[in-house]
């Protein structure tokens, strides 16, 4: 028969194991990789609603936002390295405190402008080449249950939601897909000059993205300080089109472990 002392020791060992596991998980999340679910369609078709990835925190070093809830007890950035144009980055919104994921377009000192839907960096066009049509089912997506926006407006539930797709090439040679839905006021913008110590981000789904083209005062992202960068998204680990990852029939195995470009 098990004595009360043995039961007490067993319970204590279980509690200690759980505490150690939580501490190890916390250290892993703080120093190395942070899990991130894609909640919206702003980065289609590079990232889809329901993609799950780990954010590489070692890519740019560490700031106060490297810790959960932004509680790291230091300011600035340590062991920092500069991000590269074209990186897909998770960062902390400078005002709302929410985590966003976008593509890095503008470096400190750059001049960024959109003209007729075409990106210009320091006066140089980032050319777009047609790359067919991105097609997805018009249905509720992810836990929020949002519906995709379609270039062929008026699609019924279950129909094909289409968007024109292009390959855009940045001045440093990085190429990636961008989508077009409709003419937008953000297709033509003033020139944005990126301040020192800040970065300019845009979504690949250009007409459905809250990003640096809109100032923070107007509920946009604006320029993002270096210390707000959390890490680089390198690879999709898992993907589910349904409202829950438990809905195995909505899994997208073709996206498992897919490299993010």
TrEMBL record:
Enzyme class (EC, first level): hydrolase
Catalytic activity: Cleavage of hydrophobic, N-terminal signal or leader sequences from secreted and periplasmic proteins
Compartment list: Membrane
MF-aspect GO terms: serine-type endopeptidase activity; signal peptidase activity
Record-linked SUPFAM superfamilies: LexA/Signal peptidase
Source domain of life: Bacteria
GO cellular component: membrane
Membrane-topology annotation of the record: Single-pass type II membrane protein
Keywords in alphabetical order: Hydrolase, Membrane, Protease, Transmembrane, Transmembrane helix
Active site: 42, 102
Domain (Peptidase S26): residue spans on this chain: 12-236
Membrane-spanning residues: 18-38
Enzyme Commission code: 3.4.21.89
InterPro entries: LexA/Signal_pep-like_sf, Pept_S26A_signal_pept_1, Pept_S26A_signal_pept_1_CS, Pept_S26A_signal_pept_1_Lys-AS, Peptidase_S26
GO biological process terms held by the UniProt record: signal peptide processing
PROSITE patterns assigned to the protein according to its UniProt record, in alphabetical order: SPASE_I_2 (PS00760), SPASE_I_3 (PS00761)
Family of the protein in this entry: Belongs to the peptidase S26 family.
Name the UniProt record assigns to this protein: Signal peptidase I
Species assigned in the record: Tranquillimonas alkanivorans
């Amino acid at each position: 028969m098990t004595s009360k002392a043995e039961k007490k020791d067993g319970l204590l060992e279980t509690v200690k194991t759980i505490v150690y596991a939580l501490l190890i998980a916390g250290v892993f999340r703080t120093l190395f990789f942070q899990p991130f679910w894609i909640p919206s369609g702003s980065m289609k078709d590079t990232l889809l609603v329901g993609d799950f990835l780990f954010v590489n925190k070692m890519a740019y070093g560490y700031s106060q936002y490297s810790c959960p809830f932004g509680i790291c007890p230091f300011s600035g950035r340590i062991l920092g390295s500069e991000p590269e144009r074209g990186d897909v980055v998770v960062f902390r919104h400078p005002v709302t405190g929410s985590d966003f994921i976008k593509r890095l377009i503008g470096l400190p000192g750059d001049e960024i402008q959109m003209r007729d839907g075409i990106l210009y960096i320091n006066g140089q066009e980032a050319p777009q080449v047609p790359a067919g049509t991105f097609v997805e089912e018009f249905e509720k997506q992810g836990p929020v249950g949002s519906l995709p926006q379609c270039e062929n407006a008026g699609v019924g539930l279950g129909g094909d939601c289409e968007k024109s797709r292009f390959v855009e090439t940045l001045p440093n040679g990085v190429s990636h897909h961008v989508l077009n839905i409709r003419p937008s006021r953000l297709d033509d913008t003033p020139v944005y000059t990126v301040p020192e110590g800040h970065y300019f981000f845009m979504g690949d789904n250009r007409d459905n993205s809250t990003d640096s083209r809109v100032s923070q005062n107007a509920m946009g992202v604006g320029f993002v300080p270096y210390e707000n960068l959390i890490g680089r998204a390198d690879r999709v680990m898992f993907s589910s089109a349904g409202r829950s990852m438990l809905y195995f029939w909505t899994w997208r195995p073709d996206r498992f472990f897919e490299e993010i470009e």
